[in-house]
Amino acid sequence: MSQLFRNKYRIPSARLVGWDYSRPGAYFVTICTRNRVCWFGGVKNGKMVLSDIGKIVHDEWAKTPKIRPNVKLDEFVVMPNHFHGILIIKNDDVRTIRPNVVETTRRVVSTKTATEPERKTTLKPNSLGSIIGQFKSVCTKRIRAVNDPEFQWQSRFHDHIIRNEPELFRIRQYIRNNPAKWERDRNR
Question: CB neighbours of 176 closer than 8 A, spacing ≥ 6?
Answer without folding.
Answer: 75, 77
